[in-house]
User: Fold this.
Amino acid sequence: MHTTQTAQQLKEIVKEKYGQIADQSYQQNATSCCGAGCGCNSDYVVMADDYSNLKGYVAEADLGLGCGLPTEFALIKEGDTVIDLGAGAGNDAFVARSITGEKGKVIGIDLTEKMVDKARANAEKLGYNNVEFRLGDIEQLPVTSNIADVVVSNCVLNLVPDKAKAFAETFRVLKPGGHFSVSDIVLRGALPDGLRKSAEMYAGCVAGAISKKEYLEIIERTGFSNIKIQKEKMIFIPDEIAAAHLNKEELINFKSGEAGIYSITVYAEKPALSTEEKQAQKAAC
Assistant:
């Protein structure tokens, strides 16, 4: 996938697809691959988890684009500053805000103008003055360093061509001792070429996914500690979606093979400052 299309082309694909997705309903998005369409008429929910029982849930902000519930596992506290990477229409940001309360702050970042506009409109309608949405690239976050207590993200980092850079930026914006909880799509085994090379499946969070082992190794190499899987589930791609990208023989091989698509929610911490580092910081101030 990445050998035939540049990182910039992949970002343009995502911006175009998610611009269209912003105008779709929850049902349209939830029954496809992260909302990417795939020509599916099924009522089978492919990836999205049910948010409706979570405090702070706003139905208008739920476009059915997630593959987990990172805010449920994110250990957010009252007064925290939270950054939501790939905030969409604001779903996870509003759930996070219900936990941080009036004393906290939530910053949502998204690459797609239509999504940012939709999220801002939702925040304004709700009267939230401590939730803001910024247009920006996860590989170069429009946020100063060491500002967030918690970073969350839901089925977005797999869309980023340079995942190492995305996690490096996550590390940069977290305060020492801060942590992230992200839900994402990872693979076991190799995807068939028809899925791996499809622009539509890339926007649908599948073709852009990497192996679980590689994903966790990137997090570790970035410098994060206490890395753990908080939740894991297998994702079943309905035949009618897969068949749009695979011939009959490829579909049979894919279903009977060892390749698997999984949603994982991962937690990791940015190491706290040592006593010496704290003293040096105080002396510098």
In short: DSSP finds twelve helices and seven strands in the chain. Strands lie at 81-85, 105-110, 131-135, 148-154, 174-188, 225-235, 260-269. Confidence is low (pLDDT under 50) at residues 25-46. The CA atoms of residues 228 and 245 lie 34 Å apart.
